[in-house]
Amino acid sequence: MSVKPSGFPDPAGPGSDLADLMRPLVAAVAQAGAMAREMRDAGLATWTKENDSPVTDADMAVDGFLRERLAAAAPDVAWLSEESADTGARLGAERLWVVDPIDGTRAFMAGGADWAVSAALVERGRPVAAALYAPASEEMFLAVRGQGATLNGAPIRASDRAALEGARVAGPTAALDAFHPKVALNRLPRVRSLALRLARVASGEIDIALVGENAHDWDLAAADLIVEEAAGRLASHAGEPILYNRLVPRHGALLCAGLPLIATVLAARASSSLPPPVPGTTPRAPR
């Protein structure tokens, strides 16, 4: 079971201090995506976690595979993943891997295309390297801090539109309903993988991605860097940046857009012309 990251760039470039980590990261994420597809085709074992969210044997197998591969590449880097127990040992670490082995498990289980393998290297609270792979569409999004973002080796950039009217918006239905009732927006399908929804802002396919409350570090970290390096921004509704590796790795409602448009949205919110974000009601509220 091997997928070569052919067609993907040398992610960090010659001489980069991140190159030694990006190369195994890209290879591991590509191989993990192939593993998940093969396991789904062969038939999945599924069950429900304590928070009533679904999980499969593929989630667990991919989690173990990525942990083994990334630990071999960087034994001193800590670990945070949706499918691994969080011991708190990560809190004192300067660097850690933040991983969602299958983001969009419901889509994955249903045979949909909107799921992804997501992994980021976080340093001092912010991502510095990221790989996000959507196996169904064979899309590999990569980013290294200060070096831009790519999709299958080609540079990508978020939309430079600044007007809300007609903007392409994706997110949970309740958040869309409350977002800006006075402006005509072009509603797109939600994209069940939150990480992939944000990455489509980076590629210019979505203008605004809304994120409901209760997203976690593993949902966000890789896509956050990809968006930032594509001239976009993921932020709270108050305009604050996202910090990772906190005691509780969970976040409130968020906005994601290209830099001109998120400035428009945040200015409108500051002037009180936009309603407050819809609060989540449970830890598993739609993201």
UniProtKB/TrEMBL annotation:
Q: Is Metal-binding among this UniProt entry's keywords?
A: yes
Where is Mg(2+) annotated to bind?
Answer: E82, D100, I102, D103, D219
Q: Does the keyword Cell inner membrane apply?
A: no
Arranged from A to Z, the UniProt key words for this protein are: Magnesium, Metal-binding
GO MF, one term, reads:
inositol monophosphate 1-phosphatase activity
Name the GO terms of the biological process aspect: inositol metabolic process; signal transduction
**CDD domains given for it?**
CysQ
Cofactor(s) the record lists: Mg(2+)
Family annotation (InterPro entries): Inositol_monophosphatase-like (IPR000760)
Query: Any idea what this protein is called?
Result: 3'(2'),5'-bisphosphate nucleotidase CysQ
Organism of origin is Xanthobacter tagetidis
